Amino acid sequence: MIKSMTGYSREQAETSLGALTIELKTWNHRHSNVTVRLPPLFTRFEHCILSTVRSRIHRGQAQVTIDLVTHCSDWDSRLTLNLALAKEYYAGLTKIRDELHLQDQVSLTALAQLPGVLTRQEPTIKEDSAWGAIELVLQNTLDGLDAMKSTEGHTMFEAIAKQLETVQSYVREFEAARGNLVEATQQKLETRMNKLFEGRVEIDRNRLAMEAGVIASRSDITEELVRLDSHCTQFEQSLHSTGPVGRQLDFLLQEMNREINAIASKASSLASSSVCVSLKTEIEKIREIVQNVE
What we know:
This protein is an alpha+beta fold.
């Protein structure tokens, strides 16, 4: 069953690292693009997170946001002061002030912001156990996202299937009318010739039938109908696929439009033109939905 590209999921869990929250948002996009927002402690896991998400999301824009509230008492996290470096900074800044006869004072705030004076020592973690905790919550978040995308996909499937039936009914109309093409062409040709000559010239029935057959062969849409019917069958089969088929469905719709344009150029009757317009309208409705199929 097809899936939507649009979805949302959020999971929160208490882990050995702290309170871990993962939020996933996805929306439609021609290609696959994943962005990740991480706390500094998790930057080392960015590649693993991207790989995990891309293994489950095959098409569309995805945004992953991970937040962590740590248990401060459990973490060896502290600020380290480099007093010797701070003194060097202070001496250098004071010398500049005196040499240039400046009135500015060297403030504590300015010193604290200089590189290397105050550094934060990140807590040490066991990477294997940390990634295990992240992966568990991430997979649960992806499961929730998948459920939402499948639910919307089912609704999309029903809408597409209904419109595809309409397309197939129009194709059957063309197939039913195809058998009368030569006869209809002959009648149309005879009417036009009678109007042209106003009955003053006797029309050769055999020659008329031959000319009508030539015109009808040029207007034969059998090949286009066969391909159009084949595209409809492939489209219907793809709708039941469990994999990502959005691009395939989009391609088949383009091919359907191509065949309809060919039919419209050959079948010049008013009724045929009207059916072609209706066909293109239904296919455009399907295409709008397919743009959000993964």
